[in-house]
Design brief:
The structure is a single chain. The strands form 3 sheets. The chain has a 9-stranded mixed beta sheet, sandwiched between helices. It has a 3-stranded antiparallel beta sheet with strand order 10-11-12, with no helix packed on it. The radius of gyration is 21 Å and the shape is globular. The chain folds into 2 domains: 11-263, Aldolase class I (TIM Barrel, Alpha-Beta Barrel), CATH 3.20.20; 330-396, Arc Repressor Mutant, subunit A (Orthogonal Bundle). Helix 2 links the parallel strand 2 (62-70) and strand 3 (93-104). The chain has helices at 40-58, 78-91, 111-119, 134-140, 146-158, 177-190, 207-213, 222-238, 257-263, 290-298, 326-339, 346-353, 357-360, 362-370, 385-389, 391-396, and strands spanning 11-18, 62-70, 93-104, 124-130, 163-170, 194-199, 242-245, 248-250, 268-271, 276-279, 282-286, 318-323, 344-345, 374-376, 380-383. The chain contains 16 helices and 15 strands. Helix 1 runs parallel beside helix 2 and helix 6 (177-190) packs parallel to helix 8. The protein is α/β, with parallel strands linked by helices and 399 residues long. Helix content is 41%, strand content 21%. It binds iron/sulfur cluster (SF4).
Length: 399
């Protein structure tokens, strides 16, 4: 294959989408489906075909991180994850430092599937806890209890995994700041190395959004959500967690390589339906339907085609594509970099774009600085605590 009109990076991340869930949570609008289990075997073959396709271009690229997400990867039989990982290890260049994460649901984990994941080369487990409050888990439509989550966490540890992320959500209907703080202390008692905490966002078309519109559930008050966030920052920092990104905390040395690659606006390849890729200068997304995706990929003759996005002869499994010009790449690099608590590295920006970000966006930065939303040091530009609370407004300045 020689028709490369995109850049082959030295390093990249790989995202693998598993679009299956046992049940659909009430708040979720991800591209994931319940009752589609019959598709799993052919779907995994399709994923492997897409992985092989990309490996033809990226076989010399060091894959710094892999994230198997979804959906619920732990819901499908672990033999499929094992098969998939064999192909990935065979086709891509991974090192002993590559971070390989699998997303999981507390109810799915057993000694046996954790052993398979470990043997397959997975070295990080992300556990979807969301809250330790059983009544709120019911409001969310989750299928596990707080006790299930705690047991699953210890089982993961006993199975040899050190690097564990816990996913939590705050700003839930009927959640008081005190209830959230209780969850935070339960979380801290487990001593995970990494924690992601996101405020609930209400998505159109989800049952939860409808119930709130109909007044069957109360909408969370923005001031209370901001208060929860401030409390989180305070409590996590007292307990030695680095707040390295707006919604992510880690014990030093365990910041997620996969997330950092996104926030540094570097190359990532997304495989699976609805997955997004950024292979400069292209950003594109795959078709969303798992059935259509599986059909196209399983009919693909890997020797027959080239990647010709420029000529608009898109591959059938690709849905949307756009060329990211330098202007847009710069503003996205600013926006994503500001998410990191280390901020934008001025020198790195200058090397990448041949311009000082402080000159390029002088008006924006002056205004944000005057409002105490950013802080400029000799080396970095970063959000202040006030800027983190108002981050969406800050990001809008660059678009
Ligand atoms: S388990 Fe995750 S992906 Fe599946 S429905 Fe619930 S929130 Fe969505």
């Amino acid at each position: 294959m020689s028709n490369n009109n995109f850049a082959i990076a030295n390093e990249a991340s790989l995202y693998i989408h598993i679009p299956f869930c046992q049940t659909k949570c009430f708040y979720c609008d991800f591209n994931t489906y319940a009752k589609l289990e019959s598709l799993i075997p052919s779907y995994i073959n399709a994923l492997e075909s897409e992985a092989i396709f990309w490996s033809n271009y990226f076989n010399k690229t060091e894959i710094k991180s892999i994230f198997i997400g979804g959906g619920t990867p732990s819901y499908i039989p672990s033999k499929y994850i094992e098969k998939l990982m064999e192909t990935i290890f065979y086709k891509f260049k991974l090192t002993k430092d590559s971070e390989i994460t699998l997303e999981s649901n507390p109810n799915d984990l057993t000694k046996s599937n954790l052993k398979t994941y470990y043997k397959s080369g997975i070295n990080r487990i992300s556990l979807g806890v969301q809250t330790f409050d059983n009544s709120l888990l019911k409001v969310l439509g989750r299928r596990h209890s707080s006790q299930n989550a705690i047991e699953a966490y210890y089982l993961i540890k006993e199975s040899g995994f050190k690097n564990i992320n816990l996913d939590l959500m705050y700003g839930l209907p009927n959640q008081s700041t005190d209830k959230w703080v209780d969850t935070l202390y339960q979380l801290l008692s487990l001593k995970p190395l990494h924690v992601s905490m996101y405020a609930l966002t209400l998505e159109e078309g989800t049952p939860m959004n409808e119930w709130i519109k109909e007044g069957k559930l109360p909408k969370q008050n923005d001031d209370i959500v901001a208060d929860m966030y401030s409390k989180t920052e305070e409590i996590m920092s007292k307990n030695n967690y680095l707040h390295y990104e707006i919604s992510n905390w880690a014990i030093s040395g365990f910041e997620s390589k996969h997330n950092i690659n996104y926030w540094k606006n570097k190359t990532y390849i997304g495989i699976g339906p609805g997955a997004h890729s950024y292979i400069p200068p292209y950003r594109f997304s795959n078709i969303k339907s798992p059935r259509e995706y599986t059909k196209h990929l399983n009919n693909l003759n890997l020797d027959e085609f080239n990647f010709r996005l420029i000529n608009n002869e898109k591959l059938k499994f690709i849905d949307t594509s756009e060329i990211i010009n330098t202007e847009l790449e710069m503003s996205e690099t600013i926006m994503l970099g500001l998410r990191l608590n280390s901020g934008i590295d001025i020198e790195q920006f200058k090397i990448r774009f041949d311009i000082n970000p402080l000159d390029k966006y002088s008006n924006n930065f002056d205004e944000l600085n005057n409002h105490n939303l950013i802080e400029i040091t000799e080396d970095n530009i970063k959000l202040t605590p006030k800027g983190r609370l108002l981050s969406n407004e800050v990001f809008l300045k660059f678009f």
